[in-house]
Amino acid sequence: MASSRYTFPRNPTANPKAVVTGGKGSSFYRFTILTDRLIRYEWSEDGGFEDRASTFAVFRHFDAPQYRVIQSKDSLEIITDHFHLTYDGKKFSSEGLSVKVGSDVWRYDGKSYGDLGGTARTLDGAYGRVDLEPGVLSRKAYAVLDDSKSMLFGDDGWIAVREPGRIDGYVFAYNGEHKAAIKDFYRISGRQPVLPRWVLGNWWSRYHEYSADEYLELMDHFKREGIPLTTSIVDMDWHRVADVPPKYGSGWTGYSWNRKLFPDPEGFLKELRKRNLKVALNDHPADGIRAYEDLYPAVAKALGHDTSREEPIRFDCTDRKFMDAYFDVLKVSLEKQGVQFWWIDWQQGTKSKIPGVDPLWVLNHYHYLTSKRNVKDIQRPITFSRYAGAGAHRYPIGFSGDTQTTWEGLEFQPEFTATASNIGYGWWSHDIGGHWGGIRSNQLTVRWVQLGCFSPILRLHSNKSQWNSREPWNYESEAHKAMKSALLLRHRLIPFLYTMNIRASYESEPLIQPMYWNHPTDEEAYKVPTQYYFGPDLLVAPITSPNSTVTLTGSVRAWLPPGRYIDLVHPQLVYDGGRYMHLHRELSKIPVLAHEGTIVPLDTTPNPGNGAVARPTEITILLVVGRDAHFELVEEPENQDLDQDPDATPLSTFARTPITWSQADGVLTIGPEWNGSGARRWRQWNVKLVGHTHTDVQAQVPGFRVTRDEEAGCTTVALGNVHRWQQHQQADGSGGGFEISLGENLQLDVVDIKARAFEVLHRCEMAYEAKDPVWDVVTSSDAVQTRVQRLMGLEVDATLKNAIMEVWAADGRAEGSVTGHEVWVDVKGRHAGEGIEEALKDYVIV
What we know:
This protein is of the alpha+beta class. The protein is built from 18 helices and 40 strands. The chain has four domains: 151 residues, Immunoglobulin-like, CATH 2.60.40.1760; 317 residues, Glycosidases (TIM Barrel, Alpha-Beta Barrel), CATH 3.20.20.80; 154 residues, no CATH class; 127 residues, Sandwich (Immunoglobulin-like), CATH 2.60.40. The longest helix has 18 residues. The radius of gyration is 29 Å and the shape is globular.
C-alpha cells in the first residue's frame, strides 16, 4: 500500500500560454491567467516559482483564456473582460499591485479576503459564534486566497515545503457570480469525492466507557425502536485510557484494546458487521506509540527502533518511514480485526518538525489515500477528521469539534454549515445535540436533531456524563417522538441525498448553499444567515430558539424568493414568496419549503432496521404541483467494480432514473432507468401529492390505489410493484418508463384561513377570554387593513400576533388573505401585554 499512498491525481503546472513573467535584480514576478476571472500572482527574490501541487492548488493547467498585456518600462497591465491588473514590477505592495473588478479595486496586502465567510478549523469549546476564515466569495467584486504558506506535495507525492519569502496567491474576480467562482475553485483544487451511500444515514457516537455488551445492546435497542443507524463510532475508550502506567504518560493516545471493556475485539467488531454497521475508532495520534502498546514491538521492528529502554516511538508526520509504519503496521493490524475507517481527532495545533507542515494536513491526506485499501468494505475512500484549510474538501468527512450544548451554539450551526460551502467544504459532521456543558433541554435536543436531518451528516454525539446522552427514548414523550421522526426522515431522504452527493462531486454544487448563491442580486438573501438551500429546490429555515410559552411553537424569520411554496413537513400552509415570513412550528416540525414544481424521492422500504443501506425497493415521490418539475434519481451501479479507482468513476456508470412532471397535462413519467441491471426485478413506486388533496388519478399500472388525507394535506397514489422492464431502456432505445395521469394543471390547495387560525388559537396557553378578540378580528367582515391594525392593537402576546399573521398572510389566493398588508412584530425583548404604542416601535413592515 505504501507506494500507492503517495499517488493521487494532480496537474499543477500551468499552461505556458497563460503565463506572464519577468523581473530583474531581486524582484521577479509571474502571473498566470487561469481563466478570464481567476488569476494567480507570484513574486520571488531569486526568480524561482512554484509548480508543485499545494494543499489548495492541485490542478493549474487550464486552457488559456483571452487576455491582453500592456507593458512599459515601469508598469505591467493584464486585462481580460472581467479584471484589469496593474503592477509596478517591484515587490508586491498595496501601491504597486492592484486588480480592478467591476467598480471595486483590490490592492495587495498579503491577506486572504472573502467577506461572506468560509469555515473554521474547529468548534471546540464554542458557546455560539466563532470567527470564520475567509472563503472565495464576497460582497465586493473580488475575493483573494493567499496560498504563500501552504504545504506542498513533491513529484513523488510526499510532503514538501516552500522556499521562504516567496508570495503566491489567487484573485477570484467573479463580481457576485458566486456559483461560477466555486466551480473554478473546484477546478483548481479538485472536486469533492463521491461518498458511499451509507454515510448519508444516521450515525451513533458518544464519548462514554461502553463495554462491548453495552454497545451491542444499544445498537439493538435502536433497531427495536425502529430507528435505523448505518454508522457506528467508538470513541476513545475503546483503547486503554485510565490504566496506562504513569511513566508512559496519559492515555489520550492509544492503540491497544481495553480488554476489560472489550475482551474479544474481533468478536465485537464482527457483531457490529453482522448488524450491517460501518465502524470507526477514535484516534488521537499525537503521543505516538508507547512501550505498553500491544503493537509497540511490531512498529519498532519496522522502524529499527531500540525497545530495550522502552522509549516511545514518537509521532512524526514529517518522517515518511514513520508514516508508513503508522499505516501499514499499526493501523492495518486493527483494520484486519474489522475497523473500517478512522476518526482522526488531532487537536495539537499546526506545528511539526518542518516549518509549514501542518500535521492535520498530513493525516487527512494520507488517511484518505490509504482508506482505498478498504473499499471492498466501505465502497469508497473515507476519513473523518477536522478541517485543515482550503482544499480540505478533498478528504471528507469533516468533524467540527466539541461544541457546548447551548441555544447559541445551535443558532450558529446552520450559518457555519452553509458558509463552509464558500470554501468548497460541503460535508461537515457536527456533534448533533452539542457535546458538553450547557443545559439539558428536550426542545434544544429536538431542534438540533431536526437540523441534523437537514445537515450534510447526521451524527448523534455527547460527552462523558451520566446526565447527557442522545438516545431518543431517554427524553420526554413528545421529544422522543419528534427525534425519532427526524431520524426516520433522514433515512428516507437517502435516495435524494445520494443524488445530491453525485451532484456535489460532478457538478460543483454542494448539498447546502447559502441563500445568496441562487439569489446573488437580492439583498434579502444576505440577511438570513441561518436559512439555506438543501439541494436545488428545498429551503430550510431551522428553528434555533425555544418555543413560545403561549403558542407552544418555535419561530423563525425567513425570506422566501419569488414564487409559491409549500412546507413539505407542514403542507397545510402555502406561501406566496418575494417577502419575509415569520414561520411557526410545533416541536415536531421544522420549516422545509419547496417551490411549485419540486420532486423529492424518499426511501419508504418497510422496516428499514439498522444497517448500511442498499438501493431501496420502495420509493415514494414527493411531488409539489403547480409548475413543471424534473428530478433525475442517481444511484450507484448495482455491480460496482470495487477494484477500480473510485475517484476515477465516470459519471456515465451511475444508474439514473429520470422523473418528470408535466404540469399542463398532469402526466408524471418515471424512467426509463439507465444502467440499472441485476437481480432485483421489481420496485414499488408511490406518488405523494404534497399540499394537494383533490384529484382523479389514472395510471397504466394495474392495481393502483389512491388515498387522500386532508388533515395531512396530501394525496398518495400507490402504484404497486413495477416490473423493471417497464422502467429500463432497451438496447435499441425503445420502451422504458411508465406514466400516470394525475389531472390537468393541478394546483396546491388554497389555505383555509379560518381553520388554520383556529388551530393556532386553540393551541395557545392563555386566558380563554383573551382568545375571543383575536378570533373576532380574523373572522370579521371589516376591511383587511382595519382588521390588521386591530390585531396589532390587541394586548396579547407578540408571538401570537405573528403566528396569526403567518396564517392570514400566507396565501394570497385565500379568501380574506391579508397578503400585501402584513405587519410583523419583533418579539425580541418584548413581553405579553405591552400596548400598541410600544409595539409600533418594533414593527417590521414586509
